[in-house]
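Example record used in the benchmark description.
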Amino acid sequence: MSTIAHTEELPKGLPFLGNTMLFLGLGILALSLTGTEWLPFNMPRSWYQSPSIWKLLALCLSCGGVAVLKQVSSTEMKHAERNRGTQQNEDWIPEEQGQRFETLTVYTKENCPLCEEAAEILEDYAAYLPTAEFIDIYSDPALVKQFGTCVPVVSFDGKIRFRGRINEVLLRRLIVASPVIVSPVIQGTKSGCGCNKQSCGCKRPTSQTESTGCGSNCRCA
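Model output (structure tokens):
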């Protein structure tokens, strides 16, 4: 069982590493085509003895740099989309405040980007949802058989609502359409006799154990 979802983050210096690899690879390729006679220094002996190795090295550096920069760009785009989504969530407020549902269960697994995305979305709507319980499907073979190809799976009060990805539009509709859970403490603090007359002087309860009504002693009866 897992209760933590890890958010994808870029290691520090990764963009610099990608740019360095790309420009170094392109530089070596350029030197192999133009020659090194104009350089104020001599290249290593292997440059002249094994030029194919240097060309292969340049190709690997260039491809590696492109791959790293592509990963950086993809991650930054995801963060930008999440930031825009968070701003939209701040602007969206349901008419009725309060928590919906009793339980929220998310079936997930390690190294699952969609699971991390689902955790972030649920966190954005935490004011209207119960605390999420994250369960690793590999903790139970039965869960692997049931959800192995469609994680994350999001369940509210034991009923599965989302598979594979959370649709925020549908999640908002679900929140709006679901009743707010009223705490038993709040329900038990109903005061007065219920006659709704402002002139009624019936004693209001001061604790949960005290009767919330005044019965036959109501002055409005």
